[in-house]
Amino acid sequence: MDHHRIPPNTHVDLSKIESRYTGETSKKEGQAQLKKFRKELIDLQELLFAENKRQLLIVLQGIDTSGKDGTIRHVFGDVNPQGTRVVNFKVPTRHDLAHDYLWRVHQHTPAKGEIVIFNRSHYEDVLVVRVHNLVPNTVWSKRYLHINEFERLLADEGAIILKFLLHISKRTQAERFLARLDRPDKNWKFNPDDLEERKHWQDYQAAFEAMLSQTSTPWAPWYVIPSDRKWYRNLAVASVIVETLKGLDMQFPTAVPDIESYRGKLEAILADDPT
Ligand code: AMP
Ligand code: MG
Q1: pLDDT for 227-268, tens place per residue?
Q2: Ligand nearest to the CA of 102
Q3: Do residues 217 and 8 lie in contact, with contact meaning Cβ atoms separated by under 8 Å?
Q4: Where does ligand 1 bind, in terms of residues with CB under 6 Å?
């Protein structure tokens, strides 16, 4: 899955990255592999939590309908909710806007042993903010460097950071909007404003490309995930996360000294207990 990773300081042209890509895998094989990864993730999360040394931050970005919510459900559906958190970044409140843009983000970063998934993130401050000129160019253009240094701080303090851009075609987006009209249980997800936002498609692609080129670092790499096929998107994201966690070579903490000496004590307690 390493071929989806963007090397630092590379120019990225998203129109050259095939959003329908599914590699050599068939859908059936891919779904079976995902099942295996989901199981492995249960054990790896438990180990991360038990070891309590490192923390994992996952950043999900992507245009409307790219599948951020679905990825979270399909990849993390089995893990222990204790020790795993999802944080959704919506339009900043007045209170948020009274601070610097990283202020609301920093308070949600993972603690040791924890996995935190950002559904949207501080990257909105160089995406929607750039596309809609919510702050001047002179302000947002400095943010790529701030973000790299912010993420370096987190990484220096033990965080593993993985960032995924869910890449879909413009046609796929239209099909997915339509699907929201077709299914009564998905109607609630349809927002006419999203069609307005779609008019800025090219500006978003340019903003994504600048983000990828400037903020994929050795300590916090970006992966561009072909996401027209939902099964492949889930598989690719799960694979990167599982392989990264395996690579940490985590160990369960050592037991208290003389753990066996407590066996006799506990057996005596049970033997004595009349209830
Ligand atoms: P959604 O997650 O699709 O329900 O909507 C969240 C909305 O909040 C999206 O339209 C984002 O672009 C917007 N949003 C998130 N972060 C920011 C930000 N820092 N500034 C402006 N809008 C934001
Ligand atoms: Mg939306």
Answers
A1: 999 999 999 999 999 999 999 999 999 999 999 999 999 999
A2: 1
A3: yes
A4: 88-92, 120, 124-125, 128-129
Closest C-alpha to ligand 1, atom 22: 91
Other beta carbons within 10 Å of 196:
9
Domain ranges, ordered by start, for the chain: 2-272
Ligand nearest to C-alpha 129:
1
The Cα–Cα gap between 216 and 268 comes to 59
Other beta carbons within 10 angstroms of residue 18's beta carbon come to: 11
174-190: pLDDT as tens digits: 999 999 999 999 999 99
2-272: which CATH architecture?
Answer: 3-Layer(aba) Sandwich (3.40)
Tracing tokens 């699907």 back to the chain, one arrives at 179
